[in-house]
Design brief:
globular; 4 helices; 9-stranded antiparallel sheet; 2 domains; alpha+beta; two-stranded antiparallel sheet; PH-domain like
Length: 206
């Protein structure tokens, strides 16, 4: 949990909404935390966790940059109330030099677990795998810094959109649809992936 950072639930201009799941609990390694029954939002760059309603209002949230994620695992847990369910284990890399304050300054665990009352939605898990593998941030990080800490170098390019509800509305307008499903969000992600491929190809030629 010491890789998580405090942030406002807003996206940078080069960041896209991908998927959302509810009733999510965070673990610091194998240890339970007080961060439970919240909403988990996946973007092209980060995971955002917030209390119910906070993310929609553009309020306070916890942020984990996807560049920390080195590998995935799954484990099966059982509960007398909710039966068997799967938890997602994210194994994380070392703390980055530009990390901002978060809920924990120190942790012996190099991984976090994501769980829900009925497990994590399979669609969300698949979206997470594909987004991490796409590594969109590897391209866009050259254009801007950590989305949770705006810089003063080029403020005109740091346009922020408030709240996930606002983000979803922008996606609807952009694609002229009313469906706020995961498949719609992946259209934006697909464009970013194509952009990444083009930039990689150009860099090889140069």
């Amino acid at each position: 949990m010491n890789r998580f950072e405090y942030c406002a639930a807003r996206l940078a201009e080069n960041e896209s909404f991908v998927a959302k799941d509810r009733n999510i609990k965070l673990y610091d390694g194998d240890e339970k935390t007080s961060y439970e029954d919240g909403e988990l939002v996946l973007t092209s760059h980060r995971l955002l966790w917030g209390r119910n309603g906070e993310i929609a209002r553009g309020g306070n949230a916890l942020s984990l940059r996807l560049k920390y994620v080195q590998s995935f695992d799954e484990e099966e847990a059982s509960s007398m109330l909710f039966g068997r369910k799967k938890r997602i284990i994210l194994r994380l890399g070392p703390i980055l030099p530009d990390k901002t304050p978060g809920p924990m300054d120190y942790s012996v665990a190099s991984f976090v677990k994501i769980s829900g009352k009925n497990g994590v939605e399979p669609g969300f898990v698949q979206a997470l795998y594909e987004t991490v593998n796409a590594k969109i941030w590897a391209v866009t990080d050259g254009e801007s810094s950590n989305p949770s800490t705006p810089t003063t170098a080029e403020p005109s390019k740091r346009v922020l959109r408030t709240g996930i509800m606002g983000i979803e509305r922008n996606l609807v307008e952009k694609h002229k649809q009313t469906d706020e499903s995961i498949s719609l969000a992946f259209k934006d992600l697909g464009k970013l992936m194509e952009k990444a491929k083009e930039m990689v190809a150009v860099s090889k030629v140069v």
